[in-house]
Amino acid sequence: MAPLSDYRVVDLSSGIAGAYCTKILTDGGADVVKVEAPQGDPLRRWSASGAAIAPGEDGALFGFLAGSKRSVVAEPDDVEPLLAAADVVVWSRGSAVAESTWLAPNAIHDRHPHLVVTAITPFGLHGPWRDRPATEFTLQAWSGGAIGIGRGTQDRAPVHVGGQVGEWLAGAYAAAMTMAFLARVRRNGQGELVDLSMLETDVLCLTYYPVTYFEMLGRPWRTERRPTVPGIAQAADGLVALGCGTAQQWHDLCAMSGHDEWIDERTDLTITQQANLHADELYAWLRDQRVDDVRDLASAFRIPNSPVGDGANVTTMDHFVERGAFTVNPCNGVVQPGHPYRLSGVALRGPGPAPRLGEHTAEVLAEAPAPRPVPRGAAVSDRLPLSGLRVLDMTTFWAGPSCTHALGMLGAELIHLESTPHPDGTRLIAGIPASEPQWWERSPIFSALNTNKKGLTLDFQTDAGRDLLRRLIATCDVVVENFTPRVIEQLGLDFASVRALRDDVIMLRMPGFGLDGPWRDNPAFAYVIEDASGLSWLTGYPDRNPYEPYSVGDPNAGVHALNALLLALEHRRRTGEGVLVEAAMVDAALSVAAEQVIEYSAYGALLERAGNRGPAAAPQNLYRCRDVDEFGRDDSWVAIAVATDDQWIALRQALGRPDWAMEPRLADADGRRAAHDHLDRHLAAWCQPRTGDEIVETLWGAGVPVAKVMQPHRQAELPQLQHRGFFEQVDHPLNPTASHSTLPVGLAHGPRRFHRSPAPLLGEHNHELLRELGLDDAEIAALEEDGVIGTAPAVGGRRKAGRGS
């Protein structure tokens, strides 16, 4: 049986975010009953390419997201019996049923305290912006994600991440938070109102902890937009993606391109600055090379690389073909991604047909399942759903730690394992001079990703280190790692070996490209994952190469791995069995880029990047306003997106009904889309003499989705985030107190704080954890002497051949 096969979900949501959340739950085995108004979910009529959908038919994306669900057309009063017998409600605005007062999330939670009620809204259910209109595009602007970590170039407007990626990320987070609090319901019967904010999701997934960085170091991560180099580049026969995430990879790229002299040329510059210095020469060299030759050479040098995927070609790439990454919808024959993770010995539901509107109304309403017991005075002293879970965190950089960080904020005990020869990579990327005392403890990124964790160093390239690691594994419920597959296998720590140490262990492996296939040993940083999967393809301007989002691949992998782990934990609870979880970064990326493949397979339409325009709204764009930015530049922008005809009418009214806006051809979305250039000229002229605040005040109050394009490090200044307490102040023994982002949810019965302790110093808990394994002070001192453990980078370890090496 699938892990969630005993659970019923009442789905009161509309749109991609709710649909993807409930798809994850459906694939996990839950019985999902989709309650719709007579008009049906608007997603049934959706096609990003504008393909015609025949009367009585549903769009291909709906077919993917609604597979194996049941559809009920009902009045609000009919829903009450379903709630009493359910475990979960997923809610969003968008239908007459969901927006009835009787079925508001707070009302449902009050009447049915046993339920996990997950509400997905742009800003959250509470706060000064709770009722403000927004689209995924304007949320990216408010979050700082439209500028991100330097995406684009200064000669044009910033560019958003294409593909409505924020909707998919919000759905993945909603599913994970739902399953986490179901675990608490099982423990003490106390349900939860999970109030998910899409804005907060974008902050977590489209920017790289810029507030913590700014407050700890006194400077922003980026001050200007520039493309990654090489990034996506033109080769002789097509586009190829290359990247440098470390100094070694930059040195190897210099050697690969025949320019060893660049390696020591400007050691005063970061690798990003060095790459930009030689960008023209690199691109000139690449234009003379074939894609396959570049990739073969880069792989030999261990430089991250990939082809550039899109909706037409990604299904034919050899790695995805060999791994069976795509499947066929049995109902409509459309090609679609498979599951974003693989669980050994665990049955996940395969693709099934999407329901016709109201297909199961009579069936579901005739059922009389027993109501769930209502808790009476259930103990809620422990509000953390994952208390008692012990996790060994062998991850580094962003993807793996973002998964384990969520586990820690939800109450799990986290042991973050590093070694002195190889500390977590995020300790090393902040540009702190090595002359500063304990420079490796100063990284804002490490601090932001590793609160609530204990720090242990073990050089497991030594016999003593490997022995201690095995002893530690035997005490842990979960082991998480994100090395390339060959590293773990060389250590003798494959799943069979780990399970021999603890039979019911869950091992979560997070390789970039998976545990098998021709690319399995390729190094995989976020940008390469974005390139290969198609996430980059829709980001940027049509007359330029795609821009890498450079901010989605890692946190997206982290939240999908979290979902996979929660499914594995539920399977273990039911069966007592250990589980190997393979949560490849690229599989998670293929899932949130699914629309490209689906549109191409169903309609022959290749979705293309369009700058800041998009299929969900017209007009939609960024417009320059009068403000001078904090760096003294004429580079301040507002985002405007008109998603409905009513919003268009509101925009016309707010602008004073100018003649250019009153043309009959603009009355519907198709007409506005055809006249987008015309609309952009007039909106740009209206915005230019006004400040961003004036534009927002005029349009937002009238009901038009609008946003200032925020610098990412100014996120904590947003009144909505302040009201919801999204940032918490975290003290640190060496660093200044700084704001740290939390989880993108408000909770009715949640913890008072998510951050209970700061990120650990390197090896801070060595003595505590090793004593738990039975070592005495003399034995621990000997390990320090031999370099097996330590508290400073590159001290000891394999430098000494003594004991256990």
UniProtKB/TrEMBL annotation:
Entry keyword set: Transferase
GO molecular function per UniProt: CoA-transferase activity
InterPro entries: CoA-transferase_III_domain (IPR050483), CoA-Trfase_fam_III (IPR003673), CoA-Trfase_III_dom3_sf (IPR044855), CoA-Trfase_III_dom_1_sf (IPR023606)
SUPFAM superfamilies referenced in this protein's UniProt entry, alphabetically: CoA-transferase family III (CaiB/BaiF)
Keyword Cell inner membrane recorded: no
The keyword Repeat is assigned to this record: no
Name of this chain's protein: CoA transferase
